[in-house]
Amino acid sequence: MKFKLLIATGLIIQAGHAQNFFTKGLTKLAKVVGNLQTEKVNSLDDIVATVAIGSNLHTDKLGAISQTFFNGWKTGGDAVSVMFSKKNSPGYFKIDGTVTVDGKPMEFLTAGTYGLVSDANPNPRKIEVTTTSGQKASFKIEPIKKRLKLLSINGQKDGDIALDLTKDVTLELEVPAGMENARMKVSIAINQLSIKSIYDVCYTKAAPKIIVPANAFRNVSVAPASSALYSFKNSYLSVGTESMEEATEVTGKFTAVKYTASHNDGKLVSVSKEPDLNKGLFAKGTDKDLDMKYDFFKPNAFMSRPFEHLKTIGLRSFSIRGTTFSQSSKTTETSTTITTTTTTLQFPMQPDSVWDALLESAYPRFVAAIEEELGAKVLPVEAVTHADAYKNTTAFAKDDQNTKVNFTRAFRDTKVISAFMPVTDGYGSNGVNQRIMDQIGADGLLTMTMDLEISSDGKLVLMVPKFGFEIVGKTNGPNMDTKYCSGSIQSITGVSFKTPITPEELRKIIRESSMVKVFRKGLQDLKEKEKANGDYGPVWALQK
What we know:
The protein is of the alpha+beta class and 544 residues long. A hairpin with a 3-residue loop joins strand 29 (401-402) and strand 30 (406-410).
């Protein structure tokens, strides 16, 4: 079972494996960290429940970090997990009361998460929550019915199965009637800094015999750009199915509950030759002629779709923000005097209409760069802002502001979206990004931000312009968010200005023309690197 949805500490990202004292210590630390973000409550009014049920738990011989979290791990058993998080702000809840599955108490783990391991059982489970204040909620979930059996790996059924992961791997499966061509997932266990975790390799279609290409093993779902040490010692390869479902018989304070159901089957393996992992593609450098530096990134092929998938793009957010006032003091002391010098830097406060005009001027140039370099069509702004799912983000958006100290201004009806999103709205097939793309028929969502930071060269007051962006894509499977690319551009030196500030002066301050040129260059670099890498198309073609 994969617990990515449920262990929300940042230390444990996916279903994992603990082998030694260090890992057990880390588990304890993760619980402490998670509990610091957890509030005990006797009300269900501000709670979102994120639920999962996994079947056919991996062998306890692997030594999973999930085994150190969940007491009574059972090889081949089932596990139910429920995480309680806040609806409209960061944080998790521990229930002042009881949480049960079919009447059996669930164990509180960490970060608002409860868990219970049981013997394998195909029947539905009833989850009940009762607080000391008398509030109640209940619902039913079911184990997944689509189940595969892994018969052999490269013709080897049992014993010490040796694998060379620099080559294709052939899997033989038992596929029940009606499951032919259903989406299935291949996963593998990897050690990272003495912690063993199960990472997703690829999604493909179920068949009695499938071939997992070597480039899929180069692009497992490791953290983007991670440089931590990995090894495949004492590994485990599994196949599985998973789906997002609606709970039934929902009563009490919860009006609706979604849950993830999964089933996996695997075998212990020994990896004789490890793949060279793709940690993502980087396009970075300095354009001395334009006095700009840039840093663009594309995650590996499991977490990032090929650019050829990007046909239509919706604008999630475009904004400009800045710091326009700074004051600092320096004190010098001699034998007879103490002198304090105060330095004040200030950029003239501009009316909202000026920032609106600047955004209107810059937007079409950046959009033209995206459309021409990536071959995608950017939809009208209203396509996103009028979507029901986008309206749901209002509660998490930052308000525009304009003071003598700083300002934030969003383009037209877009919002400056907060980094915080509730668990149920923030990611996966139920996440707000996916719902927006589904509603407007887009393949990606674009976020752009321009920043101005006040500075000085000792003589003149300067503004340092910066630009950041990301293009997210539709999920890979039900839970893994994807990102086509992201990046930042920054002027190496600050820009002086004259007053009064005219529209033309503002365009010079944000260095609009140079920014767009470097933006094009970074996108071109990433496209070439994706082409040279050669993995993105084949990995995603497995799902066709």
